[in-house]
Each structure stands twice: as C-alpha cells, then as structure tokens.
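Incident log, entry 3
Record: Type II secretion system protein E (372 residues)
Problem: checksum mismatch between cached and fresh output.
Input:
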Amino acid sequence: MGADLVERVRRRLAEGRAELTPSAVAAAVRGEAGGVLGDEEVLRAMSELGREFAGAGLLEPLLRAPGTTDVLVTAPDQVWVDGEDGLRRADVVFPDERAVRRLAQRLAVAAGRRLDEAVPHVDGWLPGAVRLHAVLPPITRNTCLSLRVLRPATHDLAELRARGAFSAEVAEALRALVRSRTAFLVVGGTGSGKTTLLAALLGCVPHDQRVVCVEDAGELEPDHPQVVRLVARAANVEGAGEVTVRDLVRQALRMRPDRIVVGEVRGAEVCDLLSALNTGHEGGAGTLHANSPAEVPARLEALAALGGLDRVALHSQVLAALRAVLHVRRTPEGRRLVEIGVFERAAGDLRVVPVWRHDTGWRNRALLESSR
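Fresh output:
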C-alpha cells in the first residue's frame, strides 16, 4: 500500500463523519483505490493503516522487543535500536519524511504535547512508560524521533551479582551499607544501570521500614512490602497541572517515611532532599548523572544553585547528610559497579575519596565502614 494511498485514506476518514469502524476503513480503502482491490489486499491495507494510526506505528515491534531500551529515528531509512547488545541499525524503513513527521506529531498528541512549526520540539511521556522526544525541521535536517523504554527495575543484589555487576564480597558490603542507614548516591551516565542498582539496594531495606520513592518516571519497583511511589507530572497543553519532583519531595516528608528516595536528582529538589536527610530521615538515597565520583561535588553545586543554595552551605549539607557514592558504568561486558567512594572535606573543599575500585579492589574499607 503506497504512501499516497495511505494519505488519501487518512483524509477521507478525517473528512467523513461516520464512526471509525473496520467496515468504514475498508470502504475508504476501496473507494480511494478505485474499488479494484480484492479482500486479501483490503485486509493487508487495513493492517498497514492500523500500524499507521495506532501505537508507535512501524516502531511498535521494536519497542515491544525484549531488551530494547531506545528506538531512534534520524531519517526515514535510518532507524536504530539500543539494548543489551548495544546500538544497532534496524530493518525498518519509513516511506518518506512525511511519514516520520506524522508519527512524531501523533505521538506528541498522545503525550498531551504540541509539535508543529511553532513548537518544533517535544519532550513527554507516552502510555506504557515510554519517553518521547522529537525534533522537526528546520532545526534539524530530518524529523528526529527518540523513544526510550523505561522498564521496571526489579533485579535484586543476588541477580546483579550473578550477572557480574560486582563480587559477593562487594554485595555484602552494599547490604551492610543499606542496613546501617547510610545515605548514598548512585551515579553514572545514561543507561549505565543506576536505577537498577538503586532498586536492588532498596530491596535490602528492613521490611519494618517505610520507603517513599519520588520519581520523574515510575521505574523503581524494589522487592519491598512498604514502598510508596510518587511520580511527577508535566503540565498539560494549557500549561496547567504540573507536579514537580521538588513538590513531591516536600509531600514525602508528610507521609511518615523511614527512607526518602529520589529516583533521579536533576534539579533544585537536591536542596529539599538534603534538608530531609539532615532532619532525621536517615538512609535516604538517589541517583545522579555524573561521569565519575570526582565530578559529583561539582554536579551537586550546579543543581543546588538552582535552588538558591550556595557552595559553602551545600558542602556542609552534603557532609552532614550523604556519605557514600556508588559509580556504575556500562561496559562491553555489561553494566558494572566500578567504584565506591565517600564524601570528605579536604582543604576546605568537598571531594569524593575512592575506597574501592573494580580493577584494584579495596583501598580503605575502614573509611566506608566508619561512615555508618
């Protein structure tokens, strides 16, 4: 079924006032094709139209495939898939640029967003925990579409150890860290496994403690009987109804939490999290984008500045509230814990001191244990 026929059927259905039923679609297909299609051809055409009008269209099978984390479209004939085996080119090809643009705009509507010449970029969430980002020409050569599949983080420490993320000795040190109510951050790049490790560690929290998780997207599903999940909400097309992560951190304080967890610290909410951890809510945790533990203080300073917290105050807050930093990285062998560090003040400055590295082992385990 050609792209021109799809477009004509689309217009016919849009202009008609009849209910959109299979028989109405079949009649529209026969009408636009001149009535020369047989039953088998009509069914094939309806199947193509179904992919065109519903879900993610040609990308739907890629999104549903086990292990898929990202589906990326950079041109009609350039569709890429990322997953456990790394980035690879898919066999999917769109008929033309217009088809990619139509899909991007339809998905934007499904996410409650606008995407057109006036607003040529969009960032939103689709049903089924899929993050949407799209950019239209002229700010890019072709319509670019990025879909990230957020799969619930449900692995426990034993499973991560079996996958080679860390040794049995390190796993036991991580369990002791959580049980001693030491506050920590899991840091790393995009897709490095931060949320997966955080969920596994939350499963080690004693079951008589209440965990309140605040997230931008509902990824954390730890194996724990007392978990309350608060998920942020973006504003609608009219700009109303937004609920930020910072709003939810404040709400979490009123929910009798034993542990407050922020799925990803990415803004001014770091100020509220540090304040909570310094007012009796021990054992909190979160994730943070950082290329290495050494860069964590600078990242925290930048985020705290958004909330009006100066550098000196931030350093004092961090040293009183947080102790450990767990750095994960995506390697050719899989996602690995590569470094454990602790916060310390040195020459009046905040830094992260390594106590364990995957290539050299323990450097100062006593320093980690003394932080509990």
